[in-house]
Structure formats: structure tokens, C-alpha cells
Amino acid sequence: MTNLLITGGAGFIGANFVHYWRARHPDDGITVLDALTYAGNRANLAGANAVDFVHGDIRDTALVESLLAERSIDTIVHFAAESHVDRSIHGPAAFVDTNVIGTLSLLTAARAVWLAGSGRPHRFHHVSTDEVYGSLGPNDPAFSETTPYAPNSPYSASKAASDHLVRAWQHTYGLETTTSNCSNNYGPFQFPEKLIPLFLINALHGRPLPIYGDGMQIRDWLHVEDHCRGIEACLSRGRVGETYNIGGGAELPNITVIDTLCAAVDAAFAADPGLAARFPQAPAASGTPTASLKTYVTDRPGHDRRYAIDETKARAELGYAPARSFEQGFADTLAWYLANEHWWRAVMDGSYRDWVDANYAAR
Ligand code: NAD
Ligand code: DAU
Asked: Which residue's CA lies nearest to atom 34 of ligand 1?
């Protein structure tokens, strides 16, 4: 039996991981530590049995130490972060505070509790991003674990710094760490500031779909459940001190993702006449193609052109391979957002409104 501390477990990937882990490891202890920033949502954990939720900050080292000691935590899965590149461009300091200082705080607490005396069995798994490797040209080989770091945004720079801290705590103090660097996740509970949920909800409301630059930037799309399986594989088979790249095997230009989304929304409305009554502002409600909402806007400053993951190492050492095609994963995600209107409406009642109004309405 394992006792996990899951940081950021009320966010998008963290919450999916809690549900994933609880379903497959019913006897393990799960404590979620989450500060409930704009991106944290208790509702994401509804239905997850026997999960202890602690409302707190990873930068509170004393709190983390007491959780590790009092709850006999032996595994940390560290998701908590500021995660949105656009926000990092407008307010980089919060990214350094949470992603760098927050990770330092967790490492400090883990070292104090787990390495005291003769030490105790433990694992610190750090969840990071492919963005630390920078941007690829069209013919460059995909990112491998030995690709030099070249972060370009305040977000990716802060994640790169946190990766280096984790590496140093393993190398210097012997903390037993693993790190995964994954590509763009999508799926249930994703906050509607990221491309797929933002565009889905805009499409349902007849709002513009703001495409940055020429829309030809490439990302590798990873269904969040595949990501959870990859982390599980790191925890069970990953070698201490190693990093693993986890991808979805779906390298696509943004415009292809957006065209897929528009066509899928049109098809959903054609198949279910009830959707027109629920979302009368959607172009699809009157038979107008959703693609009519596509609007090219000023590019994101410093926008990385292409990310791609070489997952040879994860396949060979962990037996990891994504199970869902983008087509299947996207269809499942659209179905989830249509079936969980109450979830995203509640999100949009909150601080999300200010962010969208301030940053997207004028474009
Ligand atoms: P998210 O923004 O949806 O959730 C982040 C969570 O962390 C929220 O619940 C928030 O309340 C919590 N949090 C923030 N600051 C905190 C603090 N100081 N103390 C405690 N909790 C705090 O993020 P996500 O998309 O679920 O990403 C999770 C992790 O995965 C991040 O580390 C991110 O860098 C990484 N990642 C994300 C993606 C992606 O596509 N979303 C891809 C690669 C890596
Ligand atoms: O690659 C992994 C990263 O993926 C994670 O580390 C980040 O936490 C996660 O936010 C994500 O970063 P991106 O910047 O790639 O994701 P985002 O959904 O913001 O954007 C995806 C692509 O779509 C990117 O090229 C920018 C573009 N885009 C995004 C938005 C929100 C648009 O064209 N218009 C938009 O309105």
C-alpha cells in the first residue's frame, strides 16, 4: 500500500490523476494539497472516494512537512503549478513563486522528513512539460530526454528551473526522484483558457475562435488519461534520477485541431436536434458552419512553433504507449463537455470571466 500526496490535485491533470489512481489502487491513501487558485476546483474531485483534501499552499514548507510525517506519505506526485503560457506573459512573477519556490519548498520538506536518520522508502515524482526544450523547426528531430533545455516563455523557464531543482536534490542529497516531461494534454476538467475547451465553449456561444498568428504551430496532443498511465508507469517502473518524455503520438498543426473541432461540433448538432435548443447562439444551431467563427488574431509573443515528443525511452523502459488516438480522444472530450455543461458554466461564473474579458474580448 502506498500513501500519496498529490499536489495540484484539484486542477485539470491532477484531478484526472486522482480519479485514475483511486479507480486502480483502491487501498492506497490519497491526500490532495491544493491552494485552489483560479485553476483549482473542488468539483473536479466529486465522486473520488476516500480522498483527503487539504486546502493549502506548496510554499508552506511546515505544512508539507507535517503532512508527510503525520500521514506517513511515501509518494509525492507534484502537479501544482501556474500552467498557462498566456498568463505567464502577462504576470511572470506568480510563475516563479509557485513553480520554482513552490517546488523548492516541497523538495525541502521531502528531504527533511524522508531523508532524516536512516531514511525511509519514498518517491518524488515531478510533472513537467515538453516546453522546457524550446521550439523545433519543421525538420528537427523530436525532443528526447537528452535535448538541451531552451525554454522560451516565463512559464517554461519556471518549469525548467523546477526540473533542475529536482535533479539537484536527487544528485546532491539522494532524494529518490523521477520526472516526466509531457506534451499538450486535453480531456475532462480542463480549464477553459486552454485551446480545446476555450474553443469548444466559444463555438457553443457563437463567439470568435481566436487563432494566434497563422495557426500553423504544431503541438503533440496527449489525452489526459494516457498521461496518467504514463505517470503510473514512471512510479512503478521508472528508474530513480531519470526523466521520461510522455507524448500522445498526435503531432498536429493548431489549424487541424481547430478544423476537427469545428466539424465535430457541426456533426454533433446535426445528430442531436436538442443541442440547438440548449445552445441557440451556436452557428451550428442554424446550420451555419462553426468554422465561420475562425478569427486570426495577433500572435502570442515568443510563440513556440513546434513541439514533438520522442517517446522511445518511455516505451522501452516503462512499456508506455498512448492508447487513445486523437480522433477518439477528441470525440470523448467533446462528449464530456456537452454532458457536463453545469461544470463549465460554474467555472465561467468565477474569476475566469475577468481573464477572458480582459484578454480575449478585444481581439
Ligand atoms: P492547472 O492549472 O489546471 O492546475 C494547477 C493546480 O495547481 C490547480 O488546482 C491550482 O489550484 C494548484 N496550485 C497552483 N498553485 C498552487 C500552490 N502554490 N500550492 C498548491 N496548489 C497550487 O494545471 P494542469 O494543466 O493540470 O497542469 C498540471 C501540471 O502538469 C503542471 O505542473 C503543468 O506544468 C504540467 N503540464 C501540463 C500540461 C498541460 O497540457 N496542461 C502539459 C505538460 C505539463
Ligand atoms: O506542451 C505542454 C504545454 O501545453 C503545457 O506545459 C502547458 O501547461 C499547457 O498550457 C500547454 O501549453 P500551450 O501554450 O501549448 O497550450 P494552449 O492551449 O494555451 O495553446 C495551444 C496552442 O493553441 C498554442 O500554439 C497557442 C494556440 N492558441 C491558444 C489559445 C488559448 C490559439 O491559437 N488561440 C488561443 O486562444
From this structure: 83
